[in-house]
Amino acid sequence: MADISTRIPPSSFTSSNRPEIGEETGGDRPEHNEGVVARTIEQQTAKLPSDLFLWAAGGSIVGSLCLQMAGRQHESLFVGQWAPTFLILGLYNKLVKVAGSDPVPIRG
Q: Is residue 18 included in any domain, yes or no?
């Protein structure tokens, strides 16, 4: 199967002739709407400032270092592994803020 970039050149995409969802791959993609729970969670978490997740990740790193210096290696590893989770949550939060959870298709 050919890659999408070999079938449709990126230079042919402008805001006026952008293909609909599923059209660029040639397949039919049914309409998809988020459920009530996902939409509610995204609306509530979108109210949080993005740097909260950065501070949480930094706090888990500092907490991990403190536990490591106190000789509590297992607890240190556990707390240190929270940092990537907080960063991924922050990335998801930012993505939902910028792109939205239910993008509206562009109709030409």
A: no
Number of domains in the chain: 1
pLDDT tens-digit map of 17-70: 554 544 444 445 556 677 788 788 888 877 888 889 999 999 999 999 999 999
| 2 occurs within a structural domain | no
Determine if residue 26 is left, alpha or beta; phi over 0 gives left, psi from -120 to 50 gives alpha, anything else beta.
left
pLDDT in tens, 64-107: 999 999 999 999 999 999 999 999 999 988 888 887 766 555 66
42 is a domain residue: yes
Q: Is residue 28 part of a domain?
A: no
Cα gap 59→40, rounded to integer Å: 27
Domain of 59 in residue numbering reads as 35-100
Residue with tokens 């490591």: 68
pTM across the whole model: 0.58
Write the CA distances from 50 to 96, 99, 105, integer angstroms.
11, 15, 26
